[in-house]
Structures are given as C-alpha cells and as structure tokens.
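forwarding from the other thread:

> can someone predict this with S-adenosylmethionine?

sure thing
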Amino acid sequence: MSKADHWNAVYSQKAEAELSWHQDDPSVAIDLMKKAGLARHSSVIDIGAGTSRLMDSLLDLGIRDLSALDLSENALSASRHRLGARGQAVKWIVADITGWEPTRTYDIWHDRAVFHFLVNPTDQTAYIERLARSVSAGGHAIIATFALDGPEKCSGFPVARYSPESLAKTLGQSFALVLHQEHRHLTPWGHPQSFQYSLFRKSN
Ligand SMILES: C[S@@+](CC[C@H](N)C(=O)[O-])C[C@H]1O[C@@H](n2cnc3c(N)ncnc32)[C@H](O)[C@@H]1O
C-alpha cells in the first residue's frame, strides 16, 4: 500500500474522534505565527494539513493567502467541504512533500506532525530542500514534532522524535531557532502526547 493509499484510507474510514492527532483548537500554532509577525497580508502554507482546523482559524483572522498541502486527497477534500465557500480562498495542493515542486515562496511554513514521519535521511533532505526553497528570506517555519518523550509511532508508522536543538541541527544553518514550546496534546480519548513546537527564522 502506498503512503497516499494509507492516509486516504485513514481519512475515509475513521471519524475525527478516532484520529490521535485531532485537535479542535490550533491556538499553539496561531500564537507562534503571531510571534513570527503574522499579518493580514502574510502568506501561509500548512504542510500535511490533513483535516486540521488551522485554515479555519487563519481565515477567521482575515488571512487570505493560504495553502494547504497533503498527500491525502480525502483529507483535503474533507477540509474543503467543511469550510464551504470560505474554502475557495485556500489553495489545496495534493502532493507528497518529499517530491513537491514549489513554484513560489511563503512567509510562514507550518507543519504539525508530518516531518517526524520522515525517518530516513533521503526523505529528510528532500523535505528540507523544499522548505528552504519555499520560505522567503526572513520568513518563518513552525515545525511541531513528537518530543523526545513523545510516542515512538503514529498511525502505525515509526517516527523520529526531536528536541528543539536536534531539529535545528537537522534543518541546518539556513534556519535559526527563534523559540520553542512544549505542548501536551490530549488525544480525543484523553491520552497525553508530548509534542514540541519550534519556530525558526530563515536567514537572508
Ligand atoms: C498525523 S497527521 C497530522 C495532520 C495535521 N497536520 C494536524 O495537525 O491535524 C499527518 C498528516 O500528514 C500527511 N502526510 C504524511 N506524509 C506526508 C508526506 N510525505 N507529504 C505530505 N503529507 C503527508 C498525512 O496525510 C496526514 O494528513
């Protein structure tokens, strides 16, 4: 089964309450975006957006240059339908981040629980190349992964866990760690998962 088939099956067969990563309120990410200078004219891309409520919150804030990328068409289609007419403002991109060819830059790159699935160096390098090409000079990346004491697997896949420092080292010198924040996510069934959010600034 391909990765896309796996994730499409997850989103078509499970209710949101059965997805460990489901989060009703993406306020941790929104607060970090505000610290990164989020403004009405900002361009934001969410990598591995799934059915996250991030686009909903950004639209509520009046931000209109929005893109959501995921390899699961089912996930993006669910979000598009949930948002209705408001969803027309979002560019929905069905792609595997490790093979995607960006055609523009963004002020803010957001990724919650996607980079940590890339456990081999080839995929990590492919991701980081796209990150470096997609974020404008002086722009920001917010990457949330499982923390060092977080789960070792998600959706049946092994994950790589990071501290802010190990993530900064993995991303390389083009991305300076600005700040980081621990976050204890509660799954819909109340089980705690340890995440760490890191905010990076891309050098000029
Ligand atoms: C654990 S979920 C997190 C979803 C969302 N970020 C959230 O916070 O609710 C991981 C998401 O990443 C997507 N994904 C996994 N590998 C990917 C890849 N290589 N490229 C793009 N999306 C990917 C999956 O389809 C899924 O929607």
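The chain has six helices and nine strands. thats all i got for now
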